[in-house]
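Collaboration report, partner site 2.

Our partner group contributed sequences for two proteins of shared interest, and the home lab folded both. The records are reproduced in the order in which they were received, starting with the first partner submission.
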Amino acid sequence: MIRNRQSPDQFCCVINKPFIIISVSQDESWTDDIPVCDKSDVGYCANQLYKADGFKKPMHDYHGKFFHLKYDNNMYLYGVFDGFDGNLAAGFTCQRLPHEVLFDDRWKAPGPPKPDTVREILRDAFPNADREYSCHVSRIDKECAPRVAAAGTQHSGEQWKRCGCSAAVALIYQNSLYTANVGSTRILLCMWEGRKLRVLPLSVDHVPSNVEETMRLRKAGHDTSGPVTRCLGALNRKNEPNEIIADPYVSNGDITLEGNQCFLVIASAALFEALGQVRDSQNLNFDLADLIAQELQNQENIHAVAQAVVDSILRQHHARYMVSKSNQHSLNCHEDMTLLVCDLRTKSSAPAVAPLTPTEPVRIPAYVSFDEYYNMKQSEQDRLVYV
């Protein structure tokens, strides 16, 4: 039984002078008592600004949130929330959205729900969580307005209205996979078919470059500026109907996981952006999946797998900035990177690792010119041994 240590509505208000600061209590969550899925874990890296001398410094606090929960033997829930303009919206909805999914009354109906019902539960959870966030911000304004007026100070209520987040959620129920997302966080299902890796996108990027989203906004008379066209939070951009909305894309079709050799990926947009800046590729989804597949073959610890992929992309991104002759502005920083990996293979179904062909390594000095390294062919880079 789950002990409700802290419901999603129980938040604390911290009041300091000369400013009244309202913050959500995120040290504990009601989801802390739900076991985590031991087949999944998260790798992440906070944002960084690169300096020409090689040093790095953070631009702001880490705005990402995530969960990977095992509610029971038939139900698993995974989510990644990528915040912008602060982490308040991501922190609130990361607690509220699991509540909307797991405790929906439709689970109580006699017999297991049909696939269409499960998709409806996911579809309704996003706007419901967004509505609760809006109500929470309204309570902050109402409760603190008298103290703000009496003290003649400002408070952070406006920051709650600016904060927003992309969100992507995957639900496994009775060995079937259901997904939903708003914003730019992506969901991928990666499957081995023999020795080949197939990558199935299960999300839609709600960004201005999405033609359908641009047409929706223009038809409603809105501009297409901003990082995303759908999100949770960002209440200051939801004053007009059909502008920034919280209605998710929900994947269609029944995806049965039983017997499949696959793994699930949920990744923030910054991870794909950094990967695209170091690779000349038209299929970043496959590139990321391939990196994860290689790590899954090299090690069993799922946290180590996820973190190793993030660290690898980060090292390549920073190295590319350092070798750039003009230290390109587009490469001088990266936003928060979050990568959730869930290994859905069984031991009996895991594909065997292809044997490596032994080669005589090329021994090189400890110092390597980055220019020389990037001019090498990939096969030559793979054979390098640092001494």
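Second partner submission, folded after the first:
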Amino acid sequence: GNALVNMYGKSGCLDDARYVFDKIHQPNVFSWNALIVAYSQNGHGKKAIRLFRQMLLEGMKPNKVTCTIILDACACLIALEEGKMSHAIIIDNGFESDIVMGTGLVNMYGRCGNLGDARSVFDNMPQRNVVSWNAMIAAYCQNGHGKKA
């Protein structure tokens, strides 16, 4: 089931992906991730966020991949409130020290115009790499602070 959801999602066949997902007897986090990323990567970020909320309501615990997908959807939609909700979930699940999560948060906050939180996450990252530095630089540049970058 998960492979089919993934395949249909990558092909842009979202109705088919949803149909297969709905036929999975007990969807796991990988099933949910496949469906959420299908919507997110096909330009349906709002639907991806709604599915994420549904996943949480059904008691499914997100993993790092889920959080990465949702942060990207929030960044693309400039959905700051949903991004803050995702940040809280990242903290609740102990993912905040992960470099990918930190970079995703910097990117999301930067794209949403919240430089204060972007910088705070960046400053508190236990490790940084070239991608996290680039995310912080891009946040400054996208928000009219090229000299700070």
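Feedback sent to the partner group on the second submission included the following. The CA atoms of residues 29 and 63 lie 7 Å apart. The first helix runs from residue 2 to 10.
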